[in-house]
Design a protein that fits this description.
By secondary structure, the protein is α+β, with helices and mostly antiparallel strands. Helices cover 23% and strands 12% of the residues.
């Protein structure tokens, strides 16, 4: 399919542009300013997709120099923009060089994120090979970790565009991430089931150098060291500001990759995959902590702990309390009064002080027992063992949920769990926790709601 140039005169149907580009377009201006104004006001995402067109703008000497458009949009553009054939595919040089400040703003804000490029300092032959590039950019091919694409040639990722008075070297795709995914298709977030590390969704070069690095996997920095040296600490402020009476996990000094594999994904709800761990707990913890260590056994009051999930009681990074203890703790556990709930272990197994967990819990929490039994609308889940939903020792959240305030409920309510597949989620239900709206032990209201009026609950 051929391409076209925007004529030096006004566009034929400026009202069409206003309709297409939204209220940001000014039909009276009728020139290339349409693109600049619309792109500027809609932010960097508009550079990737604007209406039916993929758009990229670049600037030369303060003027809107060219706009690149997806080929599939050309037929509709010809009908509305007074276009004439041009031999350059998918390029629309702007003959009418109206001075457009918005273009300058666009390039300044998103130049790093898009395929647009400034004018190359020296002219290049459009067919220049890799050796020409390396004559100046030899450093891009050296380092402890060199991108395999370097051996495939620079034009695997870059293209040389030559107009009458300028040479530009651009990416072959409109964004760096789109380019990366053309080879690393297995890293495409849309096709991955599970929790994806947020930079990996749309910003590969936030962590990786696209050419070479002295760090493994072409990382911009190492995954260990202090705040200035550690790549992970660029986003995750962990282990750097520990309270005086708090605690910090020594494993942090071994590097984040000693426990984490950034791109690891899997079943949602499993800690191993949600937090990209090399292994699940306790297997990961036992790689360093010896269960035969007498001091470790004494700290756990000689109760069997080798099969327990360490993360239910301990924060793996840092804590405001000693021993990396979780934020919320059950009073008998916090006071080291294990005998309130436990008898001495027998044959390597936990022995409770009463016949079952529920009998033990209601000996203190009798108010909850009465609510469960007398509630007008009863919760079947609350009729079971308290430890089905609660951790008896500690938790990262108030109320001591066994997992968290959302997943503690979703393990039974699979119909609601299926809603996690939707793109848009109600924050109280899927972030804050089900108890934001529902009484988990029993209620006087339909669906265990906290108030009799659904609208009143929503308007709180």
């Amino acid at each position: 399919m051929g391409c076209s140039e925007i004529s030096s005169g006004p566009m034929k149907k400026a009202t069409h542009c206003a309709r297409l580009h939204g209220s940001f377009a000014d039909g009276r201006r009728g020139k290339c300013a349409f693109w600049a104004v619309a792109i500027r006001n809609r932010g960097s995402s508009a550079v990737q997709e604007l209406g039916p067109h993929r758009v990229e703008a670049s600037v030369e000497k303060g003027y809107c120099a060219e706009v690149r458009v997806n080929p599939r949009a050309q037929d509709s553009l010809r009908a509305t923009h007074n276009l004439k054939p041009n031999h350059h595919p998918t390029i629309f040089p702007v003959i009418h060089k109206a001075r457009v400040l918005a273009c300058l703003v666009l390039v300044a804000v998103v130049a790093v994120k898009t395929a647009s490029a400034a004018k190359h300092p020296v002219p290049l032959d459009p067919k220049a090979d890799t050796s020409t590039c390396l004559a100046c950019h030899e450093d891009k091919s050296k380092g402890k970790a060199v991108h395999s694409a370097i051996a495939m040639g620079c034009t695997t990722c870059h293209e040389i565009r030559v107009t009458k008075d300028a040479t530009r070297v651009k990416l072959t795709k409109i964004t760096p991430t789109a380019l990366c995914l053309s080879c690393h298709e297995d890293k495409k977030a849309a096709g991955i089931k599970g929790t994806v590390h947020s930079p990996a969704v749309r910003d590969c070069i936030k962590c990786h150098d696209p050419h070479s690095s002295d760090n493994k996997d072409q990382l911009l920095k190492a995954e260990s060291g202090g705040e200035k040296e550690n790549l992970c600490l660029s986003c995750h402020n962990i282990g750097e500001k520990v309270p005086e009476k708090g605690s910090r996990h020594a494993a942090l000094d071994m590097g984040c990759d000693s426990c984490h594999v950034t791109h690891k994904t899997g079943e949602i709800g499993k800690v191993e995959f949600d937090f990209h761990l090399t292994k699940g707990s306790p297997a990961l913890c036992l790689d360093c902590h010896d269960i035969k260590d007498a001091k470790l056994a004494s700290a756990h009051r000689n109760q069997p702990f080798e099969k327990a999930d360490c993360l239910t009681c301990h924060d793996p990074h840092q804590s405001d309390a000693p021993k990396l203890m979780a934020r919320f703790t059950h009073p008998p556990f916090a006071d080291k009064q294990c005998e309130v709930c436990h008898a001495p272990a027998k044959d390597g197994k936990v022995v409770l002080a009463q016949a079952d967990a529920k009998s033990l819990c209601v000996s203190c929490h009798d108010d909850k027992a009465k609510l469960i039994e007398s509630a007008k609308v009863q919760h079947p889940g609350a009729a079971g063992d308290c430890t089905d939903c609660h951790n008896p020792h500690a938790s990262r959240q108030s109320g001591l949920p066994k997992t968290d305030k959302v997943n503690a409920c979703l393990s039974c309510h699979s119909d609601v769990a299926d809603l996690t597949k939707k793109k848009v989620h109600h924050q109280p239900a899927f972030v804050e926790g089900c108890s934001t709206c529902h009484e988990p032990h029993g209620s006087e209201n339909l669906h265990l709601l906290r108030t009799s009026s659904t609208n009143g609950l929503c308007m709180e």
